[in-house]
């Protein structure tokens, strides 16, 4: 219903509106700046002569210039589809794996999976004397500096359940 109504207003008196727009005078363009005109250069003969005059001194200097270019020798690649073996990252097996197929099986050395990060943070929180930064660094093949910053800046969430207040206490 709304489309019909807007179409009626849009097509109302279209021809007369179009004729009115066409019959309007076109706006005159803004005048150009005097320095942008190229006609003035044609009026000055000394400028034209300077443009077309050959300078013998410059021509002799140009003749003395000798450019020699050599392309590097073209090498033909043998076995275009073969690539050189790239540096393989050392990987280690993850310590956990209770999610089965969804779990990450191998992690590059110096890195940990999210599950491992949460586990080591929780272990350190529960038993800080046993799970020290040095032990975690050795266990997960990490750098000690990174482990200390991880333990300092990341804290796992704790779930606290508050007893439900009864109506009598309110």
Describe, in short, the structure shown.
With 170 residues, the chain is mainly alpha-helical.
Q: What does this 3D model show about the protein?
A:
This protein is mainly alpha-helical and about 170 residues long. It has a domain at about 110-160. The protein has 8 helices and 2 strands, in the order αααααββααα. A two-stranded antiparallel ribbon has the order 1-2. It is flat and about 95 Å long. About 5% of the residues are buried.
Helices and strands in order, then pairings?
Elements: H1 2-11, H2 14-23, H3 39-43, H4 45-52, H5 56-64, E1 91-93, E2 106-108, H6 114-126, H7 133-139, H8 144-153
Antiparallel strand pairs: 1-2
Class computed from helices, strands and strand pairing? mainly alpha
Amino-to-carboxy terminus distance = 57 Å
Element string (H = helix, E = strand): HHHHHEEHHH
Q: What value does the average pLDDT take?
A: 79
Summed up, the helix count is 8
In helices, the fraction of residues equals 40-55%
List low-confidence stretches.
Answer: none
Q: Give the overall shape.
A: flat
Largest sheet: 2 strands, antiparallel
Please indicate the percent range of residues in DSSP E strands (runs of 2 or more). under 5%
E-strand count: 2
User: Over all CA atoms, what is the radius of gyration?
Assistant: 41 Å
Widest beta sheet: strand line-up: 1-2
């Amino acid at each position: 219903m709304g489309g019909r109504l807007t179409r009626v207003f849009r097509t109302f008196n279209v021809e007369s509106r179009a004729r009115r727009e066409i019959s309007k005078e076109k706006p005159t363009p803004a005048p150009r700046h005097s320095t942008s005109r190229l006609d003035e250069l044609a009026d000055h003969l000394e400028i034209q002569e300077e443009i077309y005059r050959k300078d013998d001194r410059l021509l002799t200097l140009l003749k003395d210039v000798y450019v020699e270019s050599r392309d590097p020798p073209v090498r033909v690649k043998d076995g275009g589809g073969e690539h050189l073996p790239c540096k393989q990252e050392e990987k280690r097996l993850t310590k956990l794996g209770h999610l089965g197929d969804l779990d990450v099986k191998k992690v590059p050395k110096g890195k940990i999976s999210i599950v491992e990060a949460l586990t080591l943070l929780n272990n350190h929180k529960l038993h800080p004397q046993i799970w020290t930064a040095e032990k975690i660094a050795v266990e997960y093949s990490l750098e000690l500096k990174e482990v200390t910053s991880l333990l300092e800046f990341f804290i796992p969430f704790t779930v606290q359940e508050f007893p439900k207040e009864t109506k009598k206490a309110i």
